[in-house]
Amino acid sequence: MFKILTYNNIAAVGLDRFPRERYEIASEIQHPDAVMLRSFDMHGLEIPETLKAVGRAGAGVNNIPVAEYTRRGIPVFNAPGANSNAVKELTIAGMLLAARKIAPALAYARGLEGDDKAVHTQVEKGKKQFAGFELSGKKLAVLGLGAIGVKVANAAMDLGMEVIGHDPELTVESAWQLSSMAKRAISIDDLISKADMVTLHVPLNDHTRGIINAARLDFMKKGAVLLNFSRDKVVDEEAVIQALKTGQLSAYVCDFPSRKLLDTPGVIALPHLGASTAEAEDNCAIMVADQLRDYLENGNIRNSVNLPEVVAPRVEAAVRLCIVNENVPNMVGQVTGAIAEANLNILDLVNKSKGEVAYTVVDLNSPVPEDTLVRIRSIVGVLSARVI
């Protein structure tokens, strides 16, 4: 019986992926095998000795101390792309909000007083101040061409926009999904200098923190629109505010309100609605549940932010040994040596690495003796080892 600890309200369709005869799921549970969460902050929490995996029902993992779990050989799963359609639609909505000045126009209309004749007079008098522009024919720069960025780019082209994209880590899968009509920029500066609108779809890490700063804002076309539905810290907030004050930016549309932003004209700040749809929550929960189950039952890894992807078909009647270790020389040799000394026959072996960590899956012809498992766990550099 596997135990799943939940820290947030997880969509029922996701939890239903766990067969109840094999899984116990609760928000308060002792000795969990896995944790499933959304936005709950795990920093500072004690890691249970029984924990084997963490699943975040969303894309970002800033609420999880990933490095700490990596040192314990625990994979952290997320759900990239599961909320991509929701964020895509909100990004397009943000573009329309900025282009047609919808937010201030709504505020103006709500403040109209008097009878129908007075309202009509005020409408005709005031509407010119909300004249905007059409998206068709405008240039959109998309920084980050993952699942969300590709969808935004394709949707923008369907609206008649010219799209320029940049992503130094563009995957083959994303490239296949991206319309051939999208143009490629050779650098970030090349990308943003050509655009009427710039939209950000990058993760927050050491490379992207403050990626849009004062220098890059100055490099953009005067009066451009900046959209940020990634993370708040990928832009320099103070620099954005100054760019709005000088007219370098005509609008900043984001999903991350702050007091300073809310007090700045030209800011359209939404209350973190990117993935707030029933469909996105369902998709994220289903994806993460399936990944956790496949890891717990088969040792397969899909969409882990800290361990390599390893999907190995099970060999019939085989015992599976799963090892997470530091990516250093002779780890596989030491493991197979311990297996050989136990007189176990290897039926299949897969070893892959991701940065400083590696993952090895070994299918064996018979059960692994407890002393052999203890010996493997004692190898310097082995972070975790378990038998399925």
State the end-to-end distance: 13 Å
Count of helical stretches: 14
List the strand order in the largest sheet.
Answer: 8-7-6-9-10-11-12
Pairing-aware structural class of the strands and helices?
alpha/beta
Q: Helix proportion of residues, in percent?
A: 25-40%
Q: Tally the beta strands.
A: 16
Name the CATH superfamily assignment of the largest domain. NAD(P)-binding Rossmann-like Domain
What's the CATH topology label of the largest domain?
A: Rossmann fold
The mean pLDDT is 96
Shape: elongated
Output the keywords.
7-stranded parallel β-sheet; Rossmann fold; 34% helix; alpha/beta; 3 domains; Alpha-Beta Plaits; 388 residues; elongated
Task: Give a quick precis of the structure.
This protein is an alpha/beta fold. The protein contains 14 helices and 16 strands. α3 packs across α6 (147-158).
Structural features, described:
- With about 400 residues, the protein is α/β, with parallel strands linked by helices.
- The chain folds into three domains: about 1-85 and about 275-305, NAD(P)-binding Rossmann-like Domain (Rossmann fold); about 85-90 and about 135-270, Rossmann fold; about 315-388, 2-Layer Sandwich (Alpha-Beta Plaits), CATH 3.30.70.260.
- Helices cover about 35% and strands about 20% of the residues.
- The chain contains 14 helices and 16 strands.
- It has a seven-stranded parallel sheet with strand order 8-7-6-9-10-11-12. Strands 2-1-3-4-5 form a five-stranded parallel sheet.
- Helix 3 crosses helix 6 (about 145-160).
